[in-house]
């Protein structure tokens, strides 16, 4: 899998917060943002899978 550039504009205060979180985790800002996006994507897919399983078995 290759990589693609994603550019976004955020205000200085948010960037400072992201930098602090990344530093506490021992990561670069880029790595921190990518890991956060991956985690969020996994959480959404996992929740959708649980919901579908519950619907299949009639639990909801």
TrEMBL record:
Domain of life: Bacteria
InterPro entries the record matches: Ribbon_hlx_hlx
UniProt-recorded name of the protein: Ribbon-helix-helix protein, CopG family
Annotated organism of origin: Streptomyces ficellus
